[in-house]
Structures are given as C-alpha cells and as structure tokens.
Write a structure and sequence with these properties.
The complex is a heterodimer of chains A (192) and B (607).
Chain A (H helix, E strand, L loop, with lengths): L2 E8 L4 H14 L4 E5 L9 E8 L13 E6 L2 H7 L3 E10 L6 H5 L7 H8 L4 E5 L1 H8 L5 H11 L7 H11 L5 H8 L6
Parallel strand pairs in A: 1-4, 4-5, 5-6
Antiparallel strand pairs in A: 1-3, 2-3
Helix pairs in contact in A: 1-7, 2-4, 6-8, 7-8
Chain B lengths: L1 E6 H11 L4 E4 L7 H9 L5 E4 L3 H13 L4 E6 H6 L1 H10 L5 E6 L13 H8 L3 E2 L4 H18 L3 E3 L3 H4 L1 E7 L17 H4 L3 H24 L5 E2 L6 E5 L1 H14 L5 E3 L8 H8 L4 E5 L5 H13 L4 E3 L14 H12 L27 H12 L5 E4 L25 H11 L4 E7 H17 L4 E7 L28 H7 L5 E4 L4 H12 L4 E7 L13 E2 L9 H6 L4 E4 L2 E4 L9 H5 L5 E2 L9
Helix pairs in contact in B: 1-2, 1-7, 3-5, 10-12, 11-14, 12-13, 15-19, 16-17
Classes of the chains: A alpha/beta (192), B alpha/beta (607).
Chain lengths: 192, 607
C-alpha cells in the first residue's frame, strides 16, 4: 500500500524542497516514490502543490480526490483549496499564517485566514495548527517554515519515516551552514 | 543498473546521454526546458550543448550534427515546433545519418502555452515516426529506442512527452556509466545527391517515406512499444497513451476492475496490426486521450479498413472532453460509466468559504512593472495601443497595469503594432518585447517595420535573462551552455544596424527619467526604440526593504492601486510592506505623493 501525501501553499514557501526531502528519505529506505508539482508560470505568489506517493503499486504521481493520507498545508486557504483530496479522517498539518494575494489587496479584501481555519476545524479530520510565523521567529529564520511543517508531519506518524531519517537526508541536501537551523526546525515543538 | 529519483525531463536527458548523445540544441519552453539543462549539467565535456537563438536554429544545428554522423537531440515545447517546422518538413525528406531525436513537449491544459496543439498530429503531417512515453521510467527507456529507430531508418524522429511526464518525478532504474553507448561521429561526407534538396530528390524521397512508414507500422505493432495489459478476452477495452495510461491504470486499480488496455506508445506510424488484434472480438472500445483524437481516428480508420464492427468512443463521440487535461478523477469517471462500474463514494462537505484567487503576477521588484508604468504614465490621455509578446511581461496585462492589448506568439508584437498603425493612424503604437524574445524572433520584425516605413515605438524589456522559463542565457548575456564567456550581442548595435535611428536606454526604476524618455522618443516619426534595462528581480540581491512612515502616510493607497506589487499588502486597512517579498526597488516611493515611503537602495524620486 502507498502513502499519499499532498503538500500545498504559495510559491516561495519552500514546498519543493519539502517534497524532495520526503522523496530522498524514501529512496534511502528503498521504497518506490513518485511526485508531481506545479512548476513555471505560477512560481511566485501562485498556488503551489506537490503530490507525493511512497510505497508499492504506484501507477502515477497524482491521485484522485479523497485519497491523501496527509495534507501538509503552508497556508490556510490553500489547505481548504486542496481539502477535497484528503481522505476521510485524514491528517492535516496547517500553518495558520495567511498570505494575501495581490488581487485581494487591490479589491480591499479582508482575508485573514481565520474563516479558513474555522472551516477546517469543522471537517472530519485530524487537524494540527502550527503558528509558523511564531515558530520561525523562535528558530530565528523565516526560511525555517518548511522544515517546521515537515517535522510536524513526520511526528504525526503518517509518513513512513522517523524525524531522524529525514534529518539525515536533510544534512545531505542543504548547504552546511543551514544544517543546524533546519535541524532545530525539524525538531520544533517536540515535547519528548 | 541502479535506481535514482529523477524528474521526467532529467530522465529523458539521462536516457539520451546513455544512448551515445553527441549534440543537443534547443530553445527554452515550458515544459521542455530541463531536458537541455540536465544535459549541460551532466556534460563531462564530450557533449556539445547549446541554447540556440530559436527552435529553427536549434533544429538546423541538430541536422548538421546528424548529417555528420553525430547523435543529436533538439529540444523545444510544442509551439516551438511551429518555428522549427520549415527545416523539419524538408529534413523529413532529406533524412539523417546519425540518430536524431526531436524532443517536443506538449502541454495539455494548456498550463503555460498559447495552444493545445498535438505533436502526434504534427508527426502525421511531417510523416515522421513519433514516440509517446507514459511515465518517467518509460521516458528514460523509450528515448534510447527512439535513437535506435532514427539511426536504423535514417530519419529524424519525434519524441513527445506531456507536462505530467516532463515534470513528474519517480524513482527509476537507470544505466551505470559503463553501460552507455558511445558514438564517434564520422564527420560530414560530401554527397550533393543526398544532402541537397531538389524536386527530383523530393519525389523519390516521398515514395520511400510512405513505403518506410507502412513498414514501420508493422514493426511498431510487434515492437513491444504498444503493449496490452489486463485480461484481453472481454467484449470491451480501453486504448490510451501517455500520462492518460497512468491515470487509466490508477483508476482501474481504485475501481478494483480488470479491463484490457492497449497503450499506444507509437502514435505514428499508427500500429495497425496491434490495433486490429486488440479490436477483434470487442464490441466497444473507449479511447482516453489528451489533445487531438489521434488514436480514436486511427482506430475508427482501422475498423473501416478491416471491416470490424467495434464501436469506438472518445473525443469525437463526446465521451472525453475536447479540450484540457485529463485527471485521475476524470478518467475514473469515464471508465466507471463505460464499464458500468460503481465509483467510490466521495464526501461532499459543506461549501467552503470563498477562496482567494492567486493568478500569476509580476514579482515584487520586477523591472517590467516599472517599464509598463512609465509608458502608461507617459501616454496618459493619448490614444495608444500596446502590443505585448511572450514572456514574463505578458503578465503586464493584469490589473492595475492593464498594459497588454495583444499577445499572439513569439516576436509577433512588433509587426502587429505595424499593422494596427496602418489602419489606426491616430494611435501611438508600442510593441513590448523581452531581450530573449528579441533575439529569438523580433529582429526580423524590426527590419520589416523599418523597411516598410512603420510608425511605432519598439520597447525592449531587457532584464538580461530568459526569466519566464527559469533564467537561461541568450546572445545578450555573454554566457553559453558550454560554460564559455563570450562577447555579448549588443541590442542597441543590432537596432542601429537594421536602421532604427533613435535607440535610447533608460533604467525603468528611475521613473521620472523613464517617463520623459517615453514622451520624447514616442513623439518622433518612424521606427524608434527604447531599451528599459534593469536586471530580473529574482537574480539580484535584494536591497533593504522599503519602509512606510506611518506619520506621513495618508492612506491614499496610490502605491497599492497604481502598481499592484505583491510586496505591498493591506494590513489593518493601511498599506504595509511585506518585508519577505520587497526587494527595495524604490518604485513605490516614486509614486507616493506624500513622500511617505522610504527606501535605501534603488532610485528614489528619480535622483
């Protein structure tokens, strides 16, 4: 059986690297893996997603609605946008910090993300809210968000890896000067 | 063999290199770009790699290499093949010596293209064999076969993955370096009866091509490139291709259904015998395709030719949408309807709150925003037309800039402006073109406009890169894909050389100077040019972000309403600089009437 993972957010939040680390961890464990993501036109400021599947019997990187085991959402409205892909009772890790698109700014919209979070709370799912902005401040880097989200996702137990395994592949992937910050981020909020 | 996690485009590049590739040329275009980039990245020095000035040049470089016995690959997106079609149609008649694969990435949707054209149809039109991979692994394996067929039959072949294969990632089985083929090109052997196209040669070649294609149809049927899966003794079946094959298998597995599936990996020449074998005994067959109904037409033809009574369903019968991408869900639905299977239950939660839309926008600090704003400001109150072109700056059409009146294809803006000017003489005509697009296909347009006495302003948006596709070098950047630093081709010199008398260069981030320049230059008669020169915001180290002085800001929101910069958001009803996005370009400080925006870097207030 495969684990179906959907990572979503807004361009520039580090979603692609998150997806690459999960894939690299799967390769390390000898598990088949496939992924697909938005590339190109919508790089900056657009909605970005990455479908990722780990396990046996995979035909294609994308899956249909209602099939994701976990939704890792870097932005509240993006979580709601991709929610139809989550299976019943699936896990959502969501960053509570909303990003207002420029079109909304122009139209004087008052989008804050609160209404999205309220909607998510009403769904049949395991919901974890992360204050990503606060977490990044505590770690001391706005670039820590993706590893904070990934650490939380791994600790939820849905992904077939441990934080230690992810940490090992992270060390091989990022530049040496960022290893410490990313390690801190992966372990952020670990109460053990 | 060993396993690696690769993007489809990287797998294609790796497969081509494993097949003994000697030369790769191309022009960037989503979703094809990473093929050539990967070749350059893994080049050990034995491979010749170039970003050509456009697809026609790339194809001609590849043809010359293949004439010399080199194995050549040419890369482009589907609309790039239109540009390369002139040499392609003739090369089909001339043929090649070394294997030559023309990689053309199609874009169902379309996600980032002007058209939903299908390279399989182009294959039929140009009479060239075509390969259509359905997965990253198959792309790796199939490109090697494509080189074999090309070399064996002395013909260029088309290889056409679609976006989801190009940009999909998978763990794939790849060759170790000691398993690679090595090809030593012999060099060009002079033979005018072979390499010089003349009507007599073309007549002979045409006959031979048709004969070869009939033969290839038979060979492809037996090749294993058009396999059947599932229990084949049923009255119904599915015929599909490319990523839709992957969706089909995924859907069948979710539905828990067994249905025979024929995957067409070689859409041209159509594998007739494989199709006949599959259709025999079947009452109904569903074709699941993206773009054109190529397989559906092929099967319908086969039914007529061989007197089969199988009913063929697909796009032509309304079972599959005529336009757009297929998805796992859409394919699951048509298969469930076709096979009278039950769809898995899906939850129907309450309607979510209205979601913010996130259309692609020019980046914070993008110099194109400043260029468009300068022209808009200069031309306020005057009747003008703004002809756009292909690149990031097409996004200048969005509100509040609203500065793109036309956009057709690469380089078209120059002569569209010329044409409009002929029939709307009171209008001041502008055409906007990026530096890479200028070199690709606007130089001939400029020559045409000058020669034919047009009255227009050619605006070059020079950010010194090919930004939209991920920052590839071009003739104006002075860097090549072989890592050489070469002399830059100077846009001003080119324009002066073709007879444009006035060519002014200005920094668009210096708003006052830019506006004055536009007013001055556009008032002249004839063809004149403005080069807005400022590097792509993604490539430069950002300056310190701008700061809004809350005491001075009177909340007029001009900065927000005039520029539409993602770096300025509304917070608690007031404009607020998003520090993580702001590059400190300083444009907003120049439009603020109250001098409330402070910026350290950039050009403040035109000084």
């Amino acid at each position: 059986m495969a684990t179906n993972i959907l990572i979503c957010g807004v361009g520039g939040q580090g979603i692609v690297l998150t997806s690459k680390l999960i894939a690299a961890a799967a390769m390390e464990s000898g598990m088949p893996v496939m992924s697909a993501e938005t590339i190109g036109m919508a790089q900056k400021g657009g909605s970005v997603f990455s479908f990722l599947r780990v396990g046996e019997g995979l035909h294609c990187p994308m899956f249909a609605q209602g099939q994701a085991d976990i939704l890792i959402a870097f932005e509240p409205a993006e979580a709601v946008r991709m929610l139809p892909y989550l299976k019943k009772g699936g896990r959502i890790i969501v960053n509570t910090h909303a990003i207002m698109p420029v079109t909304a700014t122009l139209q004087g919209s008052d989008y804050t993300g609160t209404e999205m979070l309220e909607y998510l709370k009403k769904q049949e799912c395991e919901l974890t809210l992360i204050d990503g902005t606060k977490a990044c401040e505590e770690i001391g880097s706005p670039r820590a968000l993706n590893m904070i989200m990934l650490g939380q996702a791994v600790r939820s137990g849905v992904l077939p890896f441990t934080v230690g395994e992810i940490e090992e592949v992270m060390k091989k992937t990022v530049k040496p000067q960022f290893v410490e910050m990313n390690s801190k981020a992966l372990n952020y909020g670990d109460t053990k | 063999m060993h396993k690696e996690f690769l993007m489809g485009n990287a797998a294609i590049a790796r497969g081509a290199v494993a097949a003994g590739l000697n030369c790769v040329s191309g022009y960037p275009g989503t979703p094809s770009t990473e093929v050539l980039e990967t070749c350059a990245k893994i080049n050990d020095g034995s491979l010749y790699v170039e970003w050509s000035v456009n697809e026609k040049a790339a194809l001609e470089v590849g043809a010359g290499a293949a004439y010399s016995g080199a194995r050549a690959m040419v890369t482009m997106k589907q609309v790039g093949l239109n540009v390369a079609s002139d040499p392609l149609m003739s090369l089909a008649y001339i043929g090649v010596k070394g294997g030559m694969v023309i990689l053309v990435a199609d874009d169902p949707g379309p996600i980032s293209s002007q058209t939903e054209q299908d390279t399989r149809t182009f294959a039929m039109y140009s009479k060239l064999p075509c390969f259509d991979p359905s997965s990253v692994q198959e792309a790796y394996d199939m490109i090697q076969k494509a080189f074999e067929y090309s070399e064996k039959y002395h013909t260029p072949v088309l290889f056409r993955p679609t976006t989801r294969v190009c940009h999909g990632y998978a763990s794939v089985e790849v060759k170790d370096e000691n398993e690679y083929s090595v090809n030593k090109p012999e060099g060009f052997v002079r033979d005018p009866s072979k390499w010089v196209i003349f009507p007599r040669l073309s007549f002979r070649a045409h006959t031979e091509i048709e004969k070869r294609n009939t033969e290839l149809s038979e060979i492809f049927s037996e090749s294993g490139l058009n396999p059947v899966s599932g229990e084949n003794g049923q009255m119904i079946g599915v015929v599909t291709h490319g990523i839709s094959y992957a969706y089909t298998m995924e859907a069948l597995s979710t539905l828990g259904a067994d249905m025979p599936v024929l995957k067409v990996g070689t859409p041209f020449p159509f594998p007739e015998q494989a199709a006949v074998g599959f259709l025999k005994g079947k009452q109904e067959v569903l074709c699941i395709e993206e773009l054109d109904p190529v397989i559906e037409r092929g099967l319908t033809f086969v039914c007529g030719k061989y007197g089969l009574s199988t009913k063929i369903y697909g796009k032509l019968t309304g079972h599959i949408p005529a336009a757009g991408e297929n998805t796992v869900a859409s394919v699951m639905k048509v298969i469930a309807d076709f096979g009278k299977l039950a769809l898995p239950e899906t939850a129907s939660p309450e309607t979510p709150p209205a979601l913010p839309v996130r259309p692609p926008v020019l980046c914070a600090g993008c110099p194109h925003r400043a260029s468009f704003f300068a022209v808009k400001t200069a031309m306020q109150g005057q009747k003008s037309v703004f002809c756009g072109d292909i690149g990031c700056y097409t996004l200048g059409n969005a509100m509040p800039l609203d500065m793109v009146d036309t956009c057709l294809c690469m380089g078209a803006g120059v002569n569209i402006a010329q044409g409009i000017g002929r029939f709307d003489p009171d209008t001041t005509c502008f055409s906007f073109v990026g530096d890479s697009t200028f070199f690709a296909s606007a130089i001939t347009g400029a020559v045409n406009a000058v020669y034919n006495q047009a009255d227009m302003t050619l605006v070059i948006l020079d950010n010194s890169t090919t930004a939209m596709t991920g920052h590839q070098p071009h003739p104006g950047t002075g860097k090549t894909m072989m890592g050489d630093i070469v002399e830059k081709i100077d846009i001003t010199a080119v324009l002066k050389g073709v007879g444009v008398k006035t060519v002014e260069t200005v920094d668009p981030l210096n708003l006052k100077a830019a506006v004055e320049c536009v007013k001055r230059v556009s008032a002249e008669k004839g063809v004149k040019a403005i080069i807005f020169k400022s590097p792509c915001a993604v490539l430069i180290k950002p300056e310190k972000p701008a700061h809004i002085d809350e005491d001075k800001c009177r909340n007029c929101k001009r900065c927000v309403k005039l520029l539409g910069c993602p770096g300025i958001v509304m917070k608690d009803g007031r404009p607020f600089i998003e520090n993580s996005l702001c590059t400190g370009c300083g444009l907003c400080s120049q439009v603020c009437p109250f001098d409330a925006i402070d910026v350290k870097g950039g050009v403040k207030n035109g000084n």
